[in-house]
Write a structure and sequence with these properties.
Layout lengths: L3 H10 L2 H33 L2 H8 L1 H29 L3 H36 L7 H13 L1 H16 L4 H24 L3 H26 L15 H33 L3 H37 L3 H28 L1 H8 L3 H14 L3 H16 L4 H25 L3 H5 L1 H25 L1
């Protein structure tokens, strides 16, 4: 927090590509360590418990978690955008109200999600056609995760707020500490005490508690513009409306991706445990791309939000172009790495040859198309930074969700194979990217005038 003012000045005045990189790397490494929570779980259960446990931790339960956490992360992005704009405009009162409203919303939301998730966990797994033998342990994992969902929500809210004012380093440090705790506890509970799925679930819960505590203490101890006071945590009507105006469409947009992933998971479940396990492992490798692309999306949202709040529209457009170019280069290199290292990477998670073969084929079909998705991520993030969220939500709903669902329920009838399911990704990404590019070009004309 002590470098907030300097970083903020650089975001609105410094060399764009340098500041994007300086802001990007802590975010991407932070996302890496956050993803490492569940990845370590899958590696340990895959080798020390078995592929059934691997499928429980990384299969349907993982998709359900991503759906719910993704929706809330989208909601909380409304707070991040609003805070970034107020920070750029030096509006201290609105910053104070936005901070405490965001925390209140995360607490209220987590209580509701805990009750719903804990109660409906087995039903959600059955709705996804989860293999019967996987339901007991998957239910156990989900229920423990939902008991600790408040820690996930509070961390995501707090870290998003810190990034919005230019501090992308503190969330990274906290995640590194907690990832180390998670690894140690995973080994202790699973390898030493043989607790299986229960062990990795409890280890994750404890680690997430620590991350939420650290980010909250940062904001409580801060003497800077943003200072969290526990007694002031409540919903301020005006800023809540602004946060929800941006957050709800962003949350729905995130849900669009995750709903289709749940549908795809349900379709893949019908191909058996080997396919579920392969998709689980691929999901961990695929997450490498998502954390990189997502970090660029967060970075450009903060850059655009602060510059838009400061009235620097030319810089808004330039930073978006620079971010697109950087993401294109990084994503291309990453796709090549995953393709050429796929067999080695899959063996990190499992020694089962069938699982490796199925998963490697999945990766080959999807990875080359990562470079198309970057247009959706960056342009959506830039539009969110200026408060334009409704049209991007509708584009995502149509291009990613509706078209992919149509694909699954039609193409799969004519050609019921795993490849048919997987190919829905490049088809819908390409069409959605074209829609986003067209809309962004239209929007830039308005900004210039």
């Amino acid at each position: 927090m002590e470098h907030t003012q300097k970083t903020t000045n650089q975001i609105t005045e410094g060399v764009i590509w340098k500041q994007l990189l300086l802001f990007f790397f802590p975010i991407v490494f932070g996302t890496f360590f956050q993803q490492l929570y569940n990845t370590i779980d899958t590696v340990i259960v895959g080798h020390f418990v078995g592929k059934e446990a691997l499928a429980c931790v990384g299969g349907s339960s993982s998709q359900i978690i991503n759906l719910i956490v993704g929706f809330f992360t989208g909601l909380s992005s409304g707070a991040s955008v609003v805070i970034a704009q107020f920070f750029g405009a030096h509006d201290k009162r609105s910053l104070h109200e936005s901070l405490h409203t965001a925390y209140a919303f995360s607490i209220i939301g987590s209580i509701l999600i805990t009750i719903i998730g804990f109660t409906l966990a087995p039903n959600m797994l059955r709705w996804m056609n989860t293999p019967t033998e996987l339901i007991p342990n998957s239910t156990l994992y989900l229920r423990i995760y939902f008991l600790g969902i408040i820690f996930v929500f509070v961390y995501n809210t707090g870290s998003g707020i810190l990034r919005a004012i230019g501090d992308s380093k503190s969330p990274l440090y906290y995640l590194i500490y907690c990832c180390i705790i998670n690894i140690v506890l995973d080994i202790l509970f699973v390898v030493v005490f043989h607790l299986g799925v229960l062990g990795v679930a409890v280890a994750t819960l404890i680690s997430q508690f620590v991350s939420a505590l650290l980010v909250t203490l940062n904001l409580i101890k801060s003497n800077e513009t943003l200072h969290l006071t526990l007694k002031n945590i409540r919903l301020y009507k005006t800023v809540l409306h602004s946060q929800l105006y941006i957050g709800i469409p962003a949350g729905i947009q995130s849900v669009m991706y995750n709903i289709t992933n749940v549908i795809i998971q349900s379709a893949l479940n019908s191909f058996g445990t080997d396919t579920v396990a392969a998709w689980s492992v691929y999901g961990k490798l695929d997450a490498i791309f998502w954390m990189v692309s997502g970090a660029f999306g967060i970075a450009i949202t903060t850059f655009v939000g602060q510059n838009y709040g400061a009235g620097k529209k030319t810089r808004v457009l330039k930073s978006t172009r620079v971010c697109l170019g950087m993401d294109l280069i990084v994503s291309s290199l990453l796709a090549l790495f995953l393709i050429f290292s796929r067999n080695f990477l899959f063996r990190i998670f499992t020694n089962d040859p069938t699982v490796i073969d199925i998963g490697s084929n999945m990766l080959m079909l999807i990875a080359p198309w990562y470079i198309v998705f970057i247009f959706i991520e960056v342009l959506s993030g830039a539009l969110r930074g200026i408060g334009d969220v409704m049209i991007p939500m509708l584009l995502t709903m149509f291009g990613v969700c509706i078209l992919r669902i149509i694909w699954i329920f039609t193409a799969l009838k004519f050609h019921p194979t795993i490849n048919t399911i997987i190919f829905s990704y490049p088809v819908t990404w390409s069409l959605t990217a074209i829609l986003f590019i067209a809309y962004y070009l239209f929007k830039t004309k308005q900004l210039r005038h």
